Amino acid sequence: MHDVQSRLEQVTINDDSAKYENGGEPLKASTPAVKRKTGTGQQPGVNVNFEAEILPVTCKENMGLLIKRKLERGATRKCIRIEDGNWFTPGEFEIRGGHEKAKNWRNNLTCGGKTLRLLMEHGFIHPPLTTKKVIITLYKFSLHN
């Protein structure tokens, strides 16, 4: 597990998304949440820039990298890459983490001790488009071009 974690931490982002506008420190994972959910694979001591394009995510003992722009295109898109190079949808990654029946990836996937639902509520991650919204958006776009 620590070997995977150290390899995932070596990923660097080569764009401006890793920089803070106000020059402040990265948000830290909340320790009370970790105390309530011990053994869930959360990373309480890791500083995460939640505004970065690539976020480290965990589901129990599984670790991967979430590409935010891919998630924004829809939850059925493969947007989480694990160490061996395989790509997963959030639901598939949740199943891989042992939550076969949960179907609640927003609460089961965490980043720096925070659930993806919380990161979406605070605006760090844009919620994925639903299929219906994508079809309507594409239809409107085709009318204007």
CATH-level-4 superfamily name: SAND domain-like
Structural class determined from secondary elements: alpha+beta
Classified by CATH, the class is Alpha Beta
Number of H/I helices:
7
CATH architecture verdict:
Roll
Organism: Phyllostomus discolor (pale spear-nosed bat)
Pfam family, one: SAND
GO molecular function, one term: DNA-binding transcription factor activity, RNA polymerase II-specific
InterPro entries: SAND-like_dom_sf (IPR010919), SAND_dom (IPR000770), Sp110/Sp140/Sp140L-like (IPR043563)
What's this model, at a glance?
This protein has 145 residues and is α+β, with helices and mostly antiparallel strands. 34% of the residues lie in helices and 14% in strands.
Describe this structure in words.
This protein has 145 residues and is an alpha+beta fold. It has a single domain (2-144), classed as SAND domain (Roll), CATH 3.10.390.10. 34% of the residues lie in helices and 14% in strands. It contains seven helices and six strands; from the N terminus they run H-H-E-E-H-E-E-H-H-E-E-H-H. The protein has helices at residues 2-9, 31-36, 68-72, 90-96, 105-108, 116-121, 131-144; strands spanning 54-59, 62-67, 80-81, 87-88, 110-111, 114-115. The chain has a four-stranded antiparallel β-sheet. It has a two-stranded antiparallel ribbon with strand order 5-6. A hairpin with a 5-residue loop joins strand 3 and strand 4 (87-88). The longest helix has 14 residues, at 131-144. It is globular. It starts with a helix and ends with a helix. The model is unreliable at 1-5, 9-22 and 33-41 (pLDDT under 50).
